[in-house]
Specification:
Elements (H helix, E strand, L loop, with lengths): L2 H19 L5 H11 L1 H8 L4 H16 L1 H11 L10 H16 L5 H15 L4 H14 L5
Helix pairs in contact: 1-2, 1-4, 1-6, 2-4, 4-6, 5-6, 6-7, 6-8, 7-8
Amino acid sequence: MGARRIARERALQALYQLDLQGEGPSVRDALEAAWGSETEGAEAATGAIAPDMKQFALELVEGVRQKLAELDAQIEKHSTNWRIDRMSRIDRNVLRLGAYELAHRPDVPKKVALNEAVELGKKFGTEESSSFINGLLDKLAQGIDKP
């Protein structure tokens, strides 16, 4: 598994915790808990937790948190009959992460952002999550001008 995929997984775990606990933990605390939860898996895949992995995860979580209202508005705009608060916690945080990468990370191509979000949905969501995430982010991606 690639370093960025591992970082995205930890970012998703931190976003989930922050969503669940509200104003409780800080972004850094939530990320540290996520890194601690599966450090062995990350080390086995990469040999160690590289500082760039941690930095990428931190940038994703902080970016999503800073743009949360904008991301939620875009997600709701492109969803059919689904308010953000009615979506499963995993699905909405995968969507937020994917929407953030699509709109605010020029270093992440559209196709990569979509694929990574779908893979997160498959791994952490329900049986229907990946198709729901793919359909919604694909609609959102159509309005974004990037490769």
